[in-house]
Design goal:
four-stranded mixed beta sheet, alpha+beta
Length: 224
């Protein structure tokens, strides 16, 4: 078995996605913490591995690959069963999975980071325009899921796992997506059938506590 080192910050959706993909494949990852809030990603030893200094980054016996969706596909192609349902060989099925992965990267995850993640730096969520883009992205996903149980067809794929990691992040915030019934239905079902969900939700609970503590500290400093 290869030595699989995952440089990651567990609270991030992209890192949690790879942990769940690995769980689905029965892989053990050697988790190496990169605390981006303390600048670990800028240390020379990490930049040497990944010049873009992004997380997660996977090193498989000296082979380095980053961008979580590329890592997810790589792991299934190298370590999954032949024609794994997580990323089947059929070109049309793969094309649909790839489209959903690119949708996550360029639309869904992009929108969520611009609305939710400023809270870690400023203590405040993004503006109304940013929220509108989140709702638009959820609307697209709701349409994709019309009449089907999974985001790219009739079975669980890497696209479900990656998008599940992204979507589950809203549980840290007061965001109600019941107005997107297909997304809600998929979310409730996907977490039941996705390996590693328990670890994902536990990490989210830790992240929520971290966020609450940060908020309390900031409020205390403002009152002082």
């Amino acid at each position: 078995m290869s030595s699989l080192d995952l440089y990651n910050f567990p609270m991030t959706p992209a890192s949690r996605a790879i942990q769940m993909v690995a769980k689905a494949l029965g892989l053990e990852l050697n988790s190496k913490l990169i605390n981006t809030m303390e600048g670990d990603q800028l240390k020379p030893e990490f930049v040497k591995i990944n010049p873009q200094h992004t997380i997660p980054t996977l090193v498989d016996n000296g082979f380095a690959i980053w961008e979580s969706r590329a890592i997810a596909v790589y792991l299934v192609e190298k370590y999954g069963k032949p024609d794994s349902p997580l990323y089947p060989k059929d070109p049309q099925k793969r094309a649909l999975i790839n489209q959903r992965l690119y949708f996550d990267m360029g639309t869904l995850y992009e929108a969520m980071t611009k609305y939710f993640f400023p809270v870690f730096r400023t203590g405040k969520l993004g503006d109304q325009e940013a929220l509108d883009k989140v709702n638009s992205a959820f609307g697209f996903l709701n349409t994709f899921l019309e009449g089907q149980d999974f985001v790219a067809g009739n079975q669980l794929t890497v696209a479900d796992i990656v998008i599940l990691a992204t979507i589950s992040t809203v549980q840290m915030f007061a965001f109600d997506f019941t107005k997107f019934p297909n997304v809600e239905r998929w979310f409730n079902n996907a977490q039941k059938v996705t390996p590693g969900w328990e670890q994902n939700i536990e990490t989210l609970k830790q992240a929520k506590k971290f966020l609450d503590d940060m908020k309390a500290k900031r409020e205390k400093e403002e009152k002082a």
